[in-house]
Amino acid sequence: MISKSNRKKTTNKKCFRDRKRMSNEERTEKAVQIGKAIENAQLTEYEQQVLDGEKAAVQSVKKDVKSKRISVRMTEAQYQQISKKCKNEQGEQLLTITDFIRQSALSKKNKIIAQEHPLDRFKLAVASEIATGITEIVHFIDSELDQRAGNYEVDDCLAIIDRLESLEEVASYLLIPSSENKKKRMH
Amino acid sequence: MTIIRIRQLKSGIEDYLENGSKKGRKQHRDELDKRVAIYGDLTVFKQANQYIKRKKDWKNNYWHFTLSLAFKYHLAPQGVLREMVMEILEFYFTGYDKKQLVAYAEIHYPKIQTNEKGMQRLPHVHLVVSKLDLWSSNQVRGLLYKEEVAKAFQLWIDDNHRFDSYSESSEDSLSIDEAEQIMVKHQQFHLKYNKHEKNEFEPDKAIISKSLNVDKEGENTQKKLNALHSDFLLYQKKQQKIRRANKLYLATQSLKMRLKNAVACVDSIAEIEQCINSSDVEETIKFAEKEFKLNPAFFFIVEKGSKKLAKDIRTGQTFNSFGIVHEHLNQDIRETIKVLKRVGAEREIHVSELH
Hints:
The structure holds two protein chains of two kinds.
Chain A: H1 4-18, H2 24-63, H3 76-85, H4 97-106, H5 118-148, H6 154-172, H7 179-186
Chain B: E1 3-9, H1 13-19, H2 29-32, E2 33-39, H3 42-55, E3 62-68, H4 78-92, E4 103-110, E5 124-130, H5 147-160, H6 166-169, H7 176-193, H8 219-245, H9 251-267, H10 269-278, H11 281-292, E6 299-304, E7 307-312, E8 318-319, H12 321-328, H13 333-354
Antiparallel strand pairs in B: 1-3, 2-4, 3-5, 4-5, 6-7, 7-8
Helix pairs in contact in B: 5-7, 10-13, 11-12, 12-13
């Protein structure tokens, strides 16, 4: 029995045994072939590097494209004030209004004064959605009444309306101002 | 023959709708018109307006659409007017979800028949749309006004509800296909320059924090919760008061009134018949002229069998005394019976005076 390791040794020995001695010409030819193969591989690698470099360059350019636009409306006075800030004492323009606005908006020194009250608006949106939903139910009942003329259960409809009214009442609590505004109004 | 008037305004509509206050007018809204709320909630609209006033500084805060029909369609069902309101919202606010807009609409059926200039008042709809986009907090961008488009829409809406149109008779009249093309082209133009990234602001997607941990048993939390609870009770009472005052401005209330009217009609059928038989249509018209400024020149009396009826020369429809009060003067069943009883009482006084 030949074990796994023995088999390996036997194969290697066989490989050495079968090997012929190469002539000088054959050796030169093979060396040239190997040289060319190495050169080719190096060339492909270089081309790949160049290509990668180009791609990266394109990508980095793409990243910097100013694709977002912000347009703001100003009053005449506000515009004059800003354009004055872009000039020095002699009235020479130091930077464009666009650059000034970009610089000042991106500056780390900015202090944000909140103008919106997101919770109030959120509550308003929910209350409005409920009101629209209830209106749709009312429209549905109403159009059913139109189609079926006198053949409908008024008491059932009135019971549905009572329930819708209680929903409306609960939804109206959403219009209670949030704590920030409450304090102002309570005083 | 629908006339749609569009205006952009800053304030004042709430008061106009609630009280009817206008330059040179003394009567209250409820004396002038029968009010039927058909879309939305006026309280929510008011709140949106207040938000704009507090947080924004916009030139105009809302749109005001007035929609009125020619007299011959004064008996058009409420459902038709409701559909027209929805069509206006869909067309003029193309690209918006209904939930993004705060809108309120009500129909005014005139009780007082002529205005200060002596002209016939017509049933009309007021539709108000706030400029606050509830999802993004930006200004709502309605379709740009263009006369050609407004005309096309008017023609389209008339055709959709089988009404005669003014433009049919004019020289530069459009066909309905042309009108539709103009409308679609304008809508596409609008959508091209007004892309809404609305979904990111939709309330159910705008969750502020998912990991809000509250220690419910903590002493401080309990104190805060108790304070909040008492605050809530205070404002709940206040809100209930506001709601009671604004109850009429809801579609549910209009439907409730309609159903109650139907119940009253069934319950009082004997009384109604008695009123019809005992009242005289000519006397009713005279009474309506005196109390509700009804123009008697529009009616002439025809006799059908033993009964006298009033024929409206504008529509060709005939009415008995009950129809005149209920359909022309827009009074509900109970009020109609009351008015006809007053007509009867006045006749009796007149007869006794003659004797």
